[in-house]
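As promised in the previous annual report, we have extended the structural survey to additional targets. Below is the entry for Aldo/keto reductase.
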Amino acid sequence: MPITPQLSLSPLGCGTWAWGNRLLWDYNPAMDTQLQGVFNTSMAKGITLFDTGDSYGTGTLNGQSEKLLGRFAQDYRGRSASRLCIATKLAAYPWRLTRQAMVKAGRASAQRLGRPIDLVQMHWSPANYAPWQERALWDGLGDLWELGQVKAVGLSNYGPQGLRQAHAYFRDRGIAIATLQVQYSLLSVASLPLQDLHDTCQELGVQLIAYSPLALGLLGGNYRQRDQVPKGLRGILFRQLLPSANPLLAVVDAVAQGRGKTPAQVALNWCLCKGTIPIPGAKTVAQARDNAGALGWRLDPAEVAALDQVALALDRPMVQNIFQTS
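The corresponding structure token record, generated without further manual editing, is:
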């Protein structure tokens, strides 16, 4: 029988994609003190799950997210330090062809973090373009677990079919798949087989993690008009999505006003109501506090149903990750 991993997963996490990413998130090293404030604030509020990846950080800053997270974790002295769970994702790069390459990647991540990895995840599946590569990468993840270098194994960007295949493989090695993370938000519910994912995860005992739960910030309340969008790639995407998304954003705003909450808190609480662990990003302490405000309360069934109805009717949902598989 697979051994059930012992992980401390807080109900809400913090994604660190922006920590080192200049292309999409305008990172610069001057932000590091602010990002450490995000880490400390999140930990103090009981948000002890931090998600990163060995591909996070652009150009010469590749791996910067792991480095910063490791440094902040080492410096933290709060009471929740013992509950810290760092999850990283190992990329299915085309040059990672062997199980040894995956083990080497895991060790490199642990070195950047300055601590063992709690949850190691396959960042995406190569099934759509190089299916022959996948088994070796699974082998490497399993080796990391068997060597005692990670506490648990998870997946990312897998659909129900791929999850079942991976679950069967790891089960035969006596390893339980602990988590699956996929793009999951009110803006993506119309474009993914989320109910099938929920059912499959529940059947297999896998915790579903929602990444991009605020749809790159579009659900956060700051972008309601085309002239308000940020610069760069996100602005281009937001201008495309806004005409279709406005009816949904109006309902989110109405629920937020009625509840005395922010739009971001409503969008995150909707994810919580769906049984997922949302991992929104944060670049400022104010954003970290706003995210934490999604905890300690629940939308009622009528509010969830109203949000579901308008989300499922979107003409143009959020663009899906190109690596998402069936």
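The chain has a mean pLDDT of 94. The beta strands are 13-15, 49-51, 85-90, 117-122, 150-156, 177-183, 207-211, 277-278. These points will be discussed at the next consortium meeting with the crystallography subgroup.
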